[in-house]
Amino acid sequence: MSKSVRSRIMASVRQRDTGPEMRLRKAMHRLGLRYRLHDRKLPGSPDLVFPRFNAVVFVHGCFWHVHGCKYSTAPTTRKEFWAEKFSANRARDERNVNLLLADGWRVLTVWECALKGKLRRKRWPKRWRNSHPGVALDC
């Protein structure tokens, strides 16, 4: 793959309104849950904020946040760069979750793979309502 093609692909990766995030937002809205989007006042600017329930949701892409599933492949070029990048992403995620928990927020991390395929049809929001802080839903 040429440098210009790779650059174009990487530039097209969005931070907000991604496919997995939109699927989750539609499901939450269908359940009657109302939320705020990307509150910059909170650590990590969570994707969904439920002030009424003192809860936040992060929708993580398996590749960028190194989930470990089949979608989280490691690039074969510039391995050191990517190792540092992924390590920094994970450290930042952990720091943000800890800050939110310390402030009394309930934190849910939903992985991209949980919103794909067969798992997409499961009724997992019920599992979240009865869960403890810092829970993660994955494949």
Would you summarize the structure shown here?
The chain is an alpha/beta fold and 139 residues long. It is 36% helix and 14% strand. The two termini are 30 Å apart.
Walkthrough of the structure:
The two termini are 30 Å apart. The chain has helices spanning 3-11, 19-30, 79-102, 125-129, and strands at 36-37, 48-50, 55-60, 106-111, 135-137. It is α/β, with parallel strands linked by helices and 139 residues long.
How is the secondary structure organized here?
Layout: H1 3-11, H2 19-30, E1 36-37, E2 48-50, E3 55-60, H3 79-102, E4 106-111, H4 125-129, E5 135-137
Parallel strand pairs: 3-4, 4-5
Antiparallel strand pairs: 1-2, 2-3
Number of helices: 4
Oligomer: single chain
Q: How much helix is in the residues?
A: 25-40%
As laid out across the biggest beta sheet, the strand order is 1-2-3-4-5
Radius of gyration: 16 Å
- Tell me the number of strands: 5
User: What order do the SSEs take from the amino end to the carboxyl end, as H and E?
Assistant: HHEEEHEHE
Weakly predicted, low-confidence segments: none
Task: List the defining traits of the structure above.
alpha/beta, 5 strands, 14% strand, 5-stranded mixed β-sheet
